[in-house]
Amino acid sequence: MVITEESLIADPSRTLRAVADARRRGKVVAVDDVGSRPQSLALLPLVEPDVIVLAPRLSAHRADDATARTAHAVAAQVERTGALVIADGVDTELCRRRALALGATYGLGALYPAVDTPEQLAGDRVDPFPPTPVRGAPSAETSTPFAIASDGRRPVHSVKRLLVAMSTSLENQAGAAGPETIVLGTFQYARNFGERTRARWQYLADRVAYAGVYGVGLGPCAEARIHHASLDPDDPLVEEWNVVVLGPYFACVLSAVDRHRGTGDLDREFDYVVSYDRGTVVRCARSILDRFTTA
């Protein structure tokens, strides 16, 4: 199964469910055109592909900052998961050397013309292509981020005033984490996504690969690069306040649950947890995106 970043942006829930289904059926999952845009790198920690196919531009041109960022992100993903790297657009010996420098093991392009049978390849000089997926089927994330993040961790009691400051600090870190980063926020109700918060997220959306916000009465739509999704009033996620940041090198979740106590708005009481564990953050991101369907 081959996916691109367009599928995730267009319909995150459907894409992630399709990946989970493909894994259950024992299929190899590949992400194509990696390095063409930052969004393609943002896919890697969410999908955890078996195969990473590098965009042709990476081996066709001299290395630049975008190439370096791709090399770092791919190296981090390969170290975590053991994914196989294939370079597309390997048309010349120079392209081949550049592809090898990026960590590719296999190549596609004019230098490697198509054959009718595998036996026509270079025999013992070609390693056998892995016949089975390297990743298992992910567990279904039917829970909420707070339930996931608080498992094995002791929640801390706080009022909203502190959570606003902590959320803003995490948003600032997300903006500096790089253009390959995904940032998700749940705001309970649309009224909590006010003008000041909207302005912060607009600034953030211009600097990351994907910014998604959720709440009863929000969307579904895409407004100024901020992707909105509406929550069902009966969804347990309505009781939570979440900020999830997931990038190639930085991962964090701030998750709080409303205790419906407190006199004023800034004195509303919550229990919250913070986790920098990448596996936990990935599960929280999948849990939120599973609710994000096509507008």
Topology, element by element:
Layout: E1 2-3, H1 5-10, H2 12-24, E2 30-34, H3 38-47, E3 51-54, H4 56-60, H5 65-81, E4 84-87, H6 93-101, E5 106-107, H7 145-149, E6 156-159, H8 160-176, E7 182-189, H9 195-205, E8 210-216, E9 221-223, E10 226-230, E11 240-246, E12 251-258, E13 269-275, H10 278-289
Parallel strand pairs: 1-2, 2-3, 3-4, 4-5, 7-8, 8-10
Antiparallel strand pairs: 6-13, 7-11, 9-10, 11-12, 12-13
What does this structure look like?
This protein has an eight-stranded mixed sheet with strand order 6-13-12-11-7-8-10-9, with helices on both faces. Helix 8 packs parallel to helix 9 (195-205). Helix content is 36%, strand content 22%. The protein has ten helices and 13 strands. It is elongated. A hairpin with a 2-residue loop joins strand 9 (221-223) and strand 10. The two termini are 24 Å apart. The protein has 295 residues and is α/β, with parallel strands linked by helices. The longest helix is centred in the first third of the chain and has 17 residues, at 65-81. The mean pLDDT is 89.
